[in-house]
Amino acid sequence: MSRKSSSLYLPNLSTLINLKNILSKTMETPIFFWNREGKPFHSALSRGNQFCALAQDNRIQHRCMQEDQLFLQQSKKNDNPQISFCHQQRWKFVIPIRIFDALLGFWGGCGLPPEDKHSLKSILLGESLIQEIFSREYEITDLSKALSEGREELTLFYTLGESIISITDFEKILREILVKAAEMVNASRATLMLWNEKEQLLEIKVSYAKKPTNIENLRFRLGEGIAGRVAKTGQPILENDLAHNPWFIKRKRQQKNILCVPLKIKGKLIGVLNVSNKPGKPGFVSRDLKLMGTLANQAAILIENAQLYQEMREMFFDAIRVLSATVDAKDPYTANHSLNVTTYACSLAREMELPEENIQNIYLGGLLHDIGKIGIPEDILSKPRKLTPEEYREIMKHPVTGAKIIEPLRGLKNIISIIRHHHERYDGTGYPDKLRGEEIPLEARILATADTFDALTSERPYREALSLEDALKEIRRHIGTQFDPQIVEALEKIVMRKIMGITLPVSQNLLFVSKRRNKK
Fold this sequence. Notes:
Blueprint: H1 13-27, E1 31-35, H2 49-55, H3 58-67, E2 71-74, E3 91-99, E4 102-112, H4 117-165, H5 170-185, E5 189-196, E6 201-209, E7 219-220, H6 225-233, E8 237-239, E9 258-265, E10 268-276, H7 286-328, H8 337-351, H9 356-368, H10 378-381, H11 389-395, H12 398-406, H13 416-421, H14 442-456, H15 468-476, H16 485-499
Antiparallel strand pairs: 1-4, 2-3, 3-4, 5-6, 5-10, 6-7, 8-9, 9-10
Helix pairs in contact: 1-4, 4-5, 5-7, 8-9, 8-14, 9-14, 15-16
């Protein structure tokens, strides 16, 4: 609560009762308290006709407010008819109650003996006592509310930090920040825009709306619209009357109000955070601006860290892809094999609705599943004829070799078992450890199915590539022996959709590409 909002302060009932009893006893007349509308602060303090005579006499209150001092009036038979009467030959008085220059209400009484210096002195002492007690009580209330709001803010920011700390997906981090921002200020809509340094534009990266809606994929230049203005000046804008805002650009969807704050790191702009359409009057208030400013500072740090993490992650994946391509390049007949297997395996995992963490492990495992072939002589890998038993035993070493290669890399520890076991068979006759059924990690079972599917649909020196239908028939023949029935079922659904021409989003479908290559 700020000093400007002291008119919202309501005196404590027990404080009013104690003051009423003390002053009534000291002045030997009933004392009353009421607000600016002539109503008691509490209904328990409104008994008696004398209260009505004082509280409902607007003329006295108006003069009292104008002169900003106590108002005394003696009742006489020949008095001005505009003056209210309480008792014959008695004084009535009304005194304004102000808290930090804001009028809170009035206090007063009837029935003081005329020309009684003791009564006048009591009134002045009472005025001083009331001002002191109300001011102290207001400050305590103000401090208590500030502490409560501070605790609420800390809780919100702690919750935001806790919810984001375990998230690695950049867009999910942005969305979590945006949802928390809207919740903090009770906004119906929100957008988070990031600064595109290359194109010199603000671009919406994520949006939020309480009711389903299509928020336009807007882009702003510096100084364009409210968001562009905030980005250019680095200063927030709180606007509850958008119709008269010179920077507001009217769109199809109605916006009632908006609060827009910049996202900056060490003075450098990284984006803008917008919340809008807060219901009720007056809309956004100064506390919302303070909350959003604090959130923007924290969000900017989180976004910068997430961007750095994303860049490092992309560099890591680029290195993995280069390494994978290097392995595939050893054999001209298996070019892009690892990438194809990865695509198929991830599609199977999504069809089976596996968590994103598992899908990421499958992605890395797919790219590196044949990394152990680095140690196999090229004449064996590229041999156009059937391998000898000795050569096949050499090939069978690559899962173990691959697992050993990546074992020292902490960032790849979750895919060691995938690489080691992607040649196990469901009936336990595979290699290297002859695991069976669910003893084989699920990700490895998925990879084994994808590996075989890519091999069947790819051209080899000794055979043509099979069609999708024939490859699926071949895999069906080995359900329960080589392959997990649940995974084959998922593969059937994906292949049948492809055959029937049903197109799904890339994240849910196999990326069937032509893998026919010329023999070399």
